[in-house]
Design a protein that fits this description.
This protein is an all-alpha fold. It is built from 26 helices and no strands. The longest helix is centred in the first third of the chain and has 18 residues, at 114-131. The radius of gyration is 27 Å and the shape is elongated. The N and C termini lie far apart (58 Å).
């Protein structure tokens, strides 16, 4: 209702309606009113949200664990609604009114119910964005650190948005939390957390200083690319491609002596671009099929973000060679990249070796490989869908099948 009326009517009439419902004799009515208070506040212009309305919202966390609190609100879980709607309320009233909400935030962060803390953990990065770097650093870091030591059900929220939260903070503050990345990567018992880090590699590649990027993020990326769990490796492919392009911006490193001191100028500086490119290309000839498959997965985003001349000179031939790999799953991935990326690109489709590999894959002995090679390119799919009267939605095509490690 609030979103369907004018701002004047909302301010003049609906606040009074809410107040009557919040004091209703029925606990079910009171509960429904408070459950919808956050979305109700979000319909206002910031200056229209009265201090009294904010007090109604902040009172949702007061005494909620007591019998009296449950009786007042009609639902002892009302604090979960408060936590869920916290970012919406804050973005509506603005960071200037953070003092009115900060105590409620701290109460939610320390709530005994892990579901409440989990809700806040998943939105902590949004709160940081609203507050800005300096306020986030002073007000949110203690909670961030608290959640990192919490139950896995809570930790998952801050780890999922780790890069987004750190991005808001000053550079020197971000780098204090680099060891957390290494701890998560080293946790062999929880591959899902490693997958969450792998999915953030694209952002992690650009938010740290050059030294941290080369000394920590680059080794982390290779660890994730070679992870024993297929879903972690697959998630890391996009980030590795972005990281390789980020290395273009970094200066070469002067080699160090055995005691760790910078060497003299007689030794050539180490190019991180060249060494990383060589390590990635080496994956294409590794004995273990998953490494060769990983090379294909890294090439998929590189086709889009790397200059064609550079990709052709460094990656194209090793990629096309894997169209003849003895393992069907490697050819399966290669077929999809060639049909969906190279053949779809004007820069590569007329290359004779690309066309030869494409034709060969369409005649492959494996049915799934033939299927991937015969898929229409994205441009062809869009053209077909726009001219078709069918209402069947298009489905995204996975780069590899879900049983990639079992198909040999």
């Amino acid at each position: 209702m609030a979103s369907s009326v004018s701002s004047i009517e909302r301010y003049s009439n609906l606040i009074e309606v809410f107040e009557r419902l919040a004091e209703d004799t029925s606990r079910w009515v009171r509960s429904a009113a408070y459950q919808n208070l956050g979305p109700f506040i979000a319909t206002f212009e910031g200056h229209q949200v009265t201090p009294k309305l904010i007090r109604y919202y902040t009172s949702m966390v007061a005494d909620t664990n007591s019998t009296a609190g449950a009786s007042k609100y009609g639902d002892s879980e009302i604090v979960t609604y408060c936590a869920f709607n916290f970012p919406a309320v804050l973005v509506t009233v603005g960071s200037s009114r953070w003092p009115e909400l900060s105590e409620t935030f701290l109460t939610l962060a320390g709530d005994l119910q892990w579901r409440v803390r989990r809700t806040l953990a998943h939105s902590l990065h949004e709160v940081a964005r609203i507050l800005g770097g300096s306020v986030a650093e002073s007000s949110l870091l203690p909670t961030f650190e608290l959640f990192l030591r919490d139950l896995d059900e809570v930790r998952v929220g801050v780890i999922r948005h780790f890069a987004e939260f750190l991005e808001v903070l000053p550079m020197e503050t971000r780098e204090r939390y680099v060891p957390i990345l290494q701890e998560v990567q080293a946790d062999s018992a929880n591959w899902r957390f490693r997958r969450l880090l792998a999915k953030q590699l694209s952002k992690l590649a650009v938010i740290f200083s050059p030294d941290t990027t080369t000394s920590v993020i680059l080794p982390l990326a290779f660890s994730l690319v070679l992870d024993p769990v297929s879903r972690v490796r697959t998630a890391a492919a996009q980030g590795m491609a972005v990281l390789m392009m980020r290395l273009d911006e970094l200066p070469p490193t002067t080699p160090a002596t055995e005691d760790g001191q910078p060497s003299d100028s007689t030794l050539a500086p180490i190019s991180h671009v060249d060494s990383t490119t060589a390590r990635v290309i080496a994956l294409a000839t590794e004995p273990y099929f998953a490494s060769r498959q990983m090379f294909v997965l890294v090439c998929e985003p590189l086709v889009d973000i790397m200059p064609p001349a550079r990709f052709t000179g460094m990656f194209l031939n090793p990629l096309l060679a894997l169209a003849n790999d003895k393992v069907a799953n490697v050819r399966l991935a290669a077929a999809l990249v060639i049909s969906q990326k190279l053949i779809a690109s004007a820069e590569y489709r007329d290359h004779p070796e690309v066309k030869a590999a494409y034709d060969r894959l369409k005649q492959d002995t494996d049915r799934d490989v033939r299927h991937n090679a015969s898929l229409p390119s994205p441009s062809q799919s869009s053209s077909t869908q726009s001219s078709s009267s069918s209402s069947t939605p298009a489905h995204s095509i996975p780069l590899i099948n879900s049983n990639v490690d079992n198909k040999t």
